[in-house]
């Protein structure tokens, strides 16, 4: 079939490289972080396919350039490309697994067909749509959700005393109106305010929370200005007062005032179906439309088979069979890709990157198009080794249907199943961008992980009543001063447990129920973007520009020109280019495609005026400072500066190839996470803080992962505590001292701790998620 021939690719750090990508094959692009993988695959190959498609539209009669062409001499034999990345920003709360896979549409058609035949009505599929105003629930308007008071958020730690904020509604300073109201209520009800909430009697709890009879109280409190005020207040039970406010939740100010006590729950009126009473009443083989959308995909697949068989001898057998087969085919793909624990009603914004990508791959496997180029971004990211085989077989099926797949990947199992490998490097940043090797995947020798003796904990911390999604009321004894890994198959509840732990520790630290001698700070280091616009840069996130601007303003040249620190700022007018407002880029918007950015025609990407650029520090202009790789820039900065310390943290964590001026939105999830970790290290030092990391090895080659291991072990040896979710067994063995495994069950069946202990103990446990996966 030939190959896609890329010649002279120079986008970003690519060094004019020539590569061949075989058509109808699976190609993996590999290499260390910053070597140019995304520059080749996304910014060159996919960008050119998208540009050619746009400019070939019949509506583009003038033939004008609609998108900036990538910096490449030529690309021959390119096919239409589809980007199935993990960065899928769909924040529409009405977008669900059912809508993006079109299974919900098939279900609505099935219900309309069967119900119309059984009842003699003439219904169309819109009658069963939660997005149809004529059919949606009037209470939740089809979202299937509503707000409810969460006792866990209202009383996060029942072991705390009332006087120190056991009931958050009454939390405040000693002279605050909240605390004074609590003391007055306790005095009238005969309750000791120094009692722990968990020690209160049933009648006392009921009086504090559910009392409907009002108490008229007089309190003396201190206002924000420091003056004392006397006021009469009427107090009822906390839940009674909050439920009254909840009736006015559509008012933004009311929602803001009580949001900390609220959780999203199924709508009380429709039970989560999103449909009105009439549409929600009809059943097929024991399931309503709402039941079908809230069932797990695995359960729904079995139900579709039951419906097919039940109507096999009826007059509507043929259309029912066709719909059931179409629905089942899509559901089978989703179950094969290990997301059978999801439901059709699961909202797309709540999916992890890996779940989102697998749902979209399943969609493509159900599509009859072929001859496409599929761009996959780390398809094994977020997958336990036990689940990786499913994504490998799905990718091979795309290839077997005459498609070409180009994947950025680090997983050795996936790479070994490819037909072709393009390895870039040899390093990241300026030292990358070259073709190291190209051809059939090389067999990689499994390196034995360094089996070190697990470190001993300096102390322990008990975390009770941990609940989040499918994690329900778990208790954990967390070792402090060591690295703990949360493991388990995809969907088992690792990220949910990490989130619950972080919220719990946050609450305990803010309420001072943990002494600073035990934990002196909490740091969440996840993969969420640190910025989504060109205005957000690595420099702005790290907070290094204040010192740099000051250094420029103190030069004789700046003083003679009357340039203060603000002249060297990207965020205020005066010295920046006003055409692009200091971003160096100009946004181009399209109606049906994501926004794209091209070089500013005024400053040509330099961001500042000529006058500002005439001033130099360390032999560099301010644009040079922003565009020079951090590993080179640090050699020019004084070693006794705060900027030097921060940049040194960035380099130690393996991101020295980045520049301070790089936009935050261009960072991968793994890079964003490591930048957050570098900032936490540079700003706070080590101390006895606790760091929560979600899959920190995502997007990392083995060399990069070992740098991360050194950083985390340095943290823990200095007294800090690290808790992370992880799927890489080698990284776990080399880094973790303690493992908490959630086993092999996912979704509603998951969320339970199966075993704990050292990596060796957990990996050898036949009940753990690692049983039979170790080579």
From TrEMBL:
Protein keywords? ATP-binding, Cytoplasm, DNA damage, DNA excision, DNA repair, DNA-binding, Excision nuclease, Metal-binding, Nucleotide-binding, Repeat, Zinc, Zinc-finger
Disordered: annotated segments: 426-457
Does the record carry Kinase as a key word? no
Primary location group: cytoplasm
| UniProt feature, compositional bias: Basic and acidic residues | 443-457
> Where is the protein situated, by its record's location annotation?
Cytoplasm
> Residue ranges of the ABC transporter domain?
455-775
Q: In the UniProt record, does the keyword DNA damage occur? A: yes
Which InterPro entries does this entry report, sorted A to Z?
A: AAA+_ATPase (IPR003593), ABC_transporter-like_ATP-bd (IPR003439), ABC_transporter-like_CS (IPR017871), P-loop_NTPase (IPR027417), UvrA_DNA-bd (IPR041552)
- Coiled-coil segments on the chain, per record: none
The UniProt entry, under Pfam families, shows:
ABC_tran, UvrA_DNA-bind
**Protein origin, superkingdom:** Bacteria
**So what family is this one in?**
Belongs to the ABC transporter superfamily. UvrA family.
Official protein name in the record: UvrABC system protein A
**Source organism of the structure:** Olsenella absiana
